[in-house]
Each structure stands twice: as C-alpha cells, then as structure tokens.
Amino acid sequence: MPDLDLLAFLGGLLLTPGPTNLLLAVCAVSSGLRRTAPMLAAAVLAYLSVMVAVAALVALMPNDSQSAVRAGMKICAVL
After folding, report:
1. How far apart are CA 72 and CA 57, in angstroms?
2. Of all residues in the chain, what percent carry a pLDDT higher than 70?
3. What angle do CA 73, 76, 24 make, to 5 degrees?
4. CB neighbours of 22 closer than 8 A, spacing ≥ 6?
5. Which pLDDT tens digit goes with each residue over 27-55?
6. H or E stretch at 7
7. What is the average pLDDT score of the chain?
8. Residue 25 contacts residue 14 (beta carbons within 8 Å)
9. Are 57 and 76 within 8 A, CB to CB?
C-alpha cells in the first residue's frame, strides 16, 4: 500500500487540471517519486520559462495600450 504522503501528493496533482499534472501522477505511481523528480523539475522550469517569456513580451508593450496587452495575453494563452 502506498504511503499517505504519496497519496496526498497525487491527490494534490490530480486536483489541478492539465495533462502535465496527469503525466506526473502516472509517472509517480509507475516509477516512484525518485524517478519522477527530474520530470517535475522540468515541468516547473518549463512553466517558469513560459511565464518569463510572456512577462518580457508584456514589458515591451506600451503602458497605455490595455487592449493590446489583453490581446497579447490571449494569444499567449492559446499558444
């Protein structure tokens, strides 16, 4: 029977939507937490790099163009 910590971790992952979280949960169950750690680190770094790229794009836009920022955020969300 798995540890309660592992079940709590998997429950927390599955409560947040997204295919990455499901992939991490399946990997943790099938391979264990030690082998899942690099995949988790890669997912966190990927999310951070996307956030930094979006923030850099928004910083390049003029401050008075709220509609352009909204449109840019929608485009980034779709991508």
Report:
1. 8
2. 75
3. 120
4. 13, 14
5. 888 888 888 889 889 888 888 888 888 77
6. helix 4-15
7. 75
8. yes
9. yes
